[in-house]
Give the backbone structure.
Amino acid sequence: MPIKRLCTSPLKSCSGFTLVEILLAMFIFAIVMSIIFTSYTATFRIIDETENQADVYRMARVTLERMYEDLESVYAAKSSEPPESEEESNQVVEFVGEEAEINGRRAHSLRFTSRAHVVFSEQDQPSGTAEISYYIEENDAEDNFVLYRKDTPRVGRAPDRDAGGLVLCEKLQSVTFFYYDAEGDVYDNWDSTSEEFEDRIPRRVSIILEFVNESNPEAPFRFLTTVALPMGVEKEST
């Protein structure tokens, strides 16, 4: 019995792809797609990291500028001259910085009297002194800190320290304050109501903010500034 030929026309090719060729093509295609996907995800990861770093730098800049202005306007007058208003007659030199830790990380707080009261509405006191305080609370959703700023006008009464503050910045790993006296000695704590620092404020305050670095938790973003405070009047000797 004669064998049938599958290709009877010289214009048609009798050859095709073998299984090895098909598998090789699929392998090459998989490698190319893997390279494209890796480049794609790496690009978006870099974009996300850049945006996160930009947010951190923005928060740090705004926060340090606000603190700088608050501390530059610290109210530390204690002189023998008569007060300019009834409000000032009720003021005392008050500057309290406390060292604290949360989960082994520094979470210092600071409270002082300042003329840098921020007015948010027409009902707010437009001028005069206010108690400014910075304090830390844990972020319930993430493993980091939130820095709050509380601004309470001092109008002939003690500020309400139970009132909540406004968020100054987030994603913090630690907050540290250092205080320097006239001799240049550094302290972790300062209390102008104590016998050691009675009626005195520090000459300089250093602020260190460390923000969480999501791409490298062991290397947080660190920002440092130092503020020179107005020279307070030393307590008069008797």
